[in-house]
Amino acid sequence: MASEVTTTAIDRGLDADLAADLAAASFTLAKRFAAGATMWSIAPGWEPHALHIAVEFIHPVIVGKRALPAVAITGPDVVDVVRVSVRPGDIVVAVSAADDAEVRSVMRRSRAWGVTTVWIGSGERPRAGLADHVLWLDDPDPRAPATGGFVLFYHLLWELTHVCFEHPGLLKESSQCTDEVCVTCSDEGRLGEVLTTTGDGMATVRTANGVETVATMLVGPVAAGDLVLVHAGTAISKVSDEEDGR
Amino acid sequence: MTSGRQEEPTNFLYPFIDAQEDDPKSLLADLAASAQAKAAESLALRRSTLEANTELISSAAAELVRRFSTGGRLFTFGNGGSCTDCTTLARLFAQPPTGTPTKSLPAWSLTADQAIMTALGNDVGFELVFARQLIARGKAGDIAVAMSTSGSSPNLMAALKEARHRGMYTVGFAGYDGGAFAKSPDVDACFVVRSQSVHRIQESQALLGYQLWLAVHEQMATPPVEAL
Q1: Quick count: other Cβ atoms within 10 Å of Cβ A81?
Q2: The pTM is what?
Q3: C-alpha distance from B76 to closest chain A C-alpha (Å)
């Protein structure tokens, strides 16, 4: 059995899909950095990966490459620390299994915070759409995170992000909402995270656009931390976590 | 490099040309091709590194098993990215991933405590941040593992010397041609990843560390017959 594990640990190649995922993720990171983003890395259970990502970007091993703002968040209460740290336009890179409750919570809230997400992991994949970019090893071995595969992923992210900086013309962010139908702010509603409730059917919520006061009578009682869809000054529905029913 | 625009020999005449780019398609294709090439390079290096170090992994693991079985403890240390990789290795020993049957062994990363790191760095100098901790904690029968890409970091050299002096078994992970680790009498087992790329070296070192941990547990499960 051990030799089987050894073989899968070494012989993982990078198929075309994964290479395209890495390319797209790196291009996104370069655009966000060019627009002033800070990158926040989290890795509950595998904290050294979060630290390695931050040091990679802030202190490049190749002399002459620019230092990029990158910070690892380790320790307890990861969701609360990320919440208070991130600003709209920032990046969160997570390293964890798909069932990690803290990372899932961060991913679910990311649109309310206006952050772009990259999720690195192995084993069973996260639900589609939970993160903006998913870089995944389809290896069920729980030891896979210790074999260097994730290190390769974030090394490539760093290398490719810096290649993108050589193409400044492509890094200009297209101004928001130029599409005919913008999913972020169309009638479908924007994701908001409840900050406080006032007891008179109103609540303050944090969305990608900032903090706003909305009416909550359509959705009933809400509490701080709840996710709601906001449309025209009103919370029109609660957004629960499909996977744990909350 | 599939982008025709980049291959134009006259591009140097038009330094502004990249600022006019507006179609990311060729860049994305270049990035994906680059990712695959680098990953293939990483894979080839991991294979050749494991092949070249099969015997050393086995003999070093045997020494680790001997020491763990008589109360020895393992200390890892490194700088920057190597610090995080050596912390992953210490954790593998101390807290094997859930769902794997291997038992916990006493192992720590000497970089874990910011108070100690900054106190020593400030008071006695960065060269002694690891050596000083080994003076306090290391005993004959223990194990020291230093991870580095250059194989020459002064604070790792100082710690390995101190470890050797105290009767610890010393393991070095290096890149390039092995640097000072490869020539030092203070390094009992030196794993060299023969590459010029810091990134590729670290990827292979992570796998080497993993294989060392795996070999320790395999040997613990099946004690060598000649020991009888």
Answers
A1: 16
A2: 0.90
A3: 13
